[in-house]
Design a protein that fits this description.
The structure is a single chain. By secondary structure, the protein is an alpha+beta fold. Helix content is about 40%, strand content about 25%. It is built from five helices and six strands, in the order H-H-E-E-H-H-E-E-H-E-E. The chain has helices spanning about 10-40, 50-60, 85-90, 95-100, 130-135, and strands at about 65-70, 75-80, 110-120, 125-130, 155-165, 170-180. A six-stranded mixed β-sheet has the order 1-2-5-6-3-4. Strand 5 (about 155-165) and strand 6 (about 170-180) form a beta hairpin.
């Protein structure tokens, strides 16, 4: 013979005891749902890598940058570096590229670069983009700096190019050391 619960208080407390596992399961599911949402929501996007790639492409493929430009047919030759233009940028005005290929304003807090043209049998030629900030940021990314790189990050890239010197094309390597 089954016992019947006749008291209302005992009936309600019995139902509450039976509902405790359901409440615990519901809390666990809600907690897991909130954690999954926090994991998949991107709160910080680092676009420095993209900025570096855009900068390199502009330097190698733009009319006013380092690429050889034939004025007769109004054509830029990507991947062919004009030695005359590179020497002009490296010796006359170290900030010549700052306003010609990519301008981020007068202070330019986005990136700075050191470009080195290496050719076999010749001395290396250096050119800068945003030289003032490059000199200021370079100590922050040196390997001997302890405690992290600070607010800037260094990127090194190397591109094989042809160097146009007069009518002769010679192989060369263009090294980029970019701080962003």
């Amino acid at each position: 013979m089954a016992l019947a619960i006749k008291n209302k208080r005992s009936l309600i407390s019995g139902e509450m005891i039976m509902a405790i596992p359901q409440i615990i399961f519901l809390i666990a599911v809600l907690f897991a749902f909130v954690i999954l949402i926090k994991i998949y929501i991107i709160t910080q996007i680092d676009v420095r890598q993209v900025d570096v790639n855009i900068f390199i492409n502009r330097v190698l493929m733009s009319k006013g940058a380092l690429s050889y430009y034939d004025e007769d047919i109004d054509r830029v030759y990507p991947g062919i570096v004009s030695l005359q233009r590179f020497l002009e940028i490296s010796s006359i005005n170290p900030n010549a590229l700052d306003n010609e290929i990519m301008s981020y304003g007068a202070d330019n807090p986005i990136l700075a670069a050191n470009m080195t043209l290496r050719r076999e049998g010749y001395a290396d030629i250096l050119a800068y983009y945003n030289k003032e900030n490059f000199d200021r940021w370079k100590p922050k990314v040196l390997p001997e700096v302890r405690g992290g790189p600070g607010s800037v990050k260094a990127f090194e890239r190397q591109r094989y190019v042809l160097v146009k010197e007069g009518d002769v094309l010679l192989p060369g390597i263009l090294d980029f050391f970019i701080i962003s």
